[in-house]
Amino acid sequence: MVPKIGYIDEFETIQYNEFKKYKDIAEKAMEAEDYPAAADAFLRGSMAIGKLAKVTENEKLREKRLTLAKNYMQVGKELKKGIIPVKSKPKEYKRSKEVHGSTIGTEPGEEEGFEKYVEQNLIATSRMTWENIGGLNSVKETIKESVVLSIIEEKPEAIKPWKGILLFGPPGTGKTLLAAATAGSLEATFFNVKVGQILSKYFGESSKLVSALYSVGRKKSPSIVFLDEFDSIALSRSGEVAESSRRVLSTLLSELDGLQDKDSGRYVLTMAATNTPWDIDSAVLSRFPKRIHIPLPDKEACLEIIRIHTIKEGLKLDEQILDEIAVRCTENLFAGRDIATLCNDAIWNMVRSENPALGSLADKPVDAIQEYRLGVRELTAGDFEKSFESVRSAVKARDVARYDKWAEEYGSG
Ligand SMILES: Nc1ncnc2c1ncn2[C@@H]1O[C@H](COP(=O)(O)OP(=O)(O)OP(=O)(O)O)[C@@H](O)[C@H]1O
Ligand SMILES: [Mg+2]
Asked: 169 CA to middle of ligand 2, Å?
C-alpha cells in the first residue's frame, strides 16, 4: 500500500470542489435551458471527477466516480449533439448507453417495470435543428415529408405512411444528427435506443423491453423510435443466434407490422441507422420500405459543414480558404465527423498559437485561470494544414462504391 501523501489529500479536495462547481453550473444551466452552457459544464465536470477517480484509493468510491465521469461525459456529448435528457438532476441523467441491470429502478420482469424504465431512461428531447446539418438537402426533405404525411390524420386509404425509415451510409455522415433533428423539429416523443446495448445488457429480457418501448411509444404518440446501431440486431438473425436475440427480433418485427393497425392515430415512426445495410436480414429490410442513403458530403455539403463548425460558432474564416478546405475534404473522403474533428483541431491550433503560455496557467489558482482572457484570431490556412495531417477518413474508395451499389439495388429516396 502506498503511503498517503499530503498533496493527494489536498488535490482531492481541490478536485472535488472543482467537480462540485461544474455540477452546480450544469444543474443551473439545465434549469435555465441553456444547453450549450450545460454541455460545457457536464464535460468539465466529467474531467474533474475523472481526475479525482484516478487518485481515489477506495475501490468502490473510485468506481462510483468513474461511472459519474462517464455519465457526465455522455450527457455533455449528447447535449452538444442536441439530445436533451429528460431528468432535471445530473445524478439522475442516465442515457441509453448506461442501460444495464444496475441502473434500473424497478426489477426487470414486470411489464410495468419495463415501461417505467423506458419512460425514465430512453426518452430524450432534442434541440437539434435542420440548420445544424450541412448538406443532405433532399434527404432532409424526404424525411420531413414522410414524417408529416404519417401524422396527418385525414388522408385517403391508399396513402399509407412509412412505418420505418432506414438510414444507411458510412460512419459519421449525420445519421444520428438527422434522427435528432427529426425529433427536435416535431416535438414528437423521441426514444433514443442503442440496439447493441439493449441486446447485450438484457439478454433474455430484451424482447420485453422492445414491447415496452412500443407500448410507451403508442401512449405518448406521435413518437419516433430511433434504433441506432441497427445492424447489431438485424445481424443476429443469421447463423448461430441466441434464442433471446431471435425473440427480440420477432418482437420487433411484429411491432413494426402491427403499430398502425392496432390503434390508428397513435403514430410511432421507427427510424433505424446502420453502417452495414448489407448485413440486414431480408425480413427486417422489408419492414423498412424507405431506405435512405446518407453519403459522404460533396463539395457544397463540405462547405456547409465547415461553416457550421467554425463560422456559426462565432469564428472567422476567409471564403477563399474555406473553399480550398472543402475541396481537400472531398478529396480525402471525409465524412461530417472528420470535418468536425478537422475544424476542432484547427481551432485548437489557432488557440495555441495565440496563447502560447496556456499550459503554464495550470499551475495558477483557479480564479486566475477563470479570469484569463483567451486570445482569438481569424482561422488561417496554416491552422488547417497541420490538422489535415492528423485527421484520417475511416472510409476507402471501395467502401463508397459498396454503399453506392447497395443504394442502387435496395435504396429508395
Ligand atoms: N451533415 C453534417 N453536418 C454537420 N455536422 C455533421 C454532419 N455529419 C456529421 N457531422 C458531425 O459529425 C458528428 C457525428 O455525426 P453523426 O453522429 O450523426 O454520424 P452517424 O452517421 O450517426 O455516424 P455513425 O454511423 O458512426 O453512427 C456530429 O456530431 C457532427 O459534429
Ligand atoms: Mg450514429
From this structure: 10
